[in-house]
Design a protein that fits this description.
63% helix, flat, mainly alpha, 2 helices
C-alpha cells in the first residue's frame, strides 16, 4: 500500500494543514468531537514551530 502522507517538509505541511482543516469542518461526519482533535492540533503547532526554526537555521 502506498503511503498517503507525502514526503518532504513543504508537502507534509500542506497535507497536515488540509487534514486539520477538513477534520475540523467535518467533526460530526467523522464521528469526532472537538476534543478529539486537540492532540492533532497540538502536534500541528509543534510541527509548525519546529519547521520554522529549521527553515530559519
Amino acid at each position: 500500500m502506498a503511503d498517503y502522507i507525502p514526503g518532504g517538509d513543504a508537502a507534509f505541511n500542506a497535507w497536515l494543514d488540509n487534514f486539520v482543516t477538513y477534520a475540523t469542518a467535518n467533526l460530526a461526519n467523522l464521528g469526532l468531537v472537538a476534543g478529539d482533535l486537540t492532540p492533532v492540533t497540538t502536534a500541528q503547532t509543534a510541527w509548525a514551530t519546529a519547521l520554522s526554526a529549521h527553515v530559519t537555521a
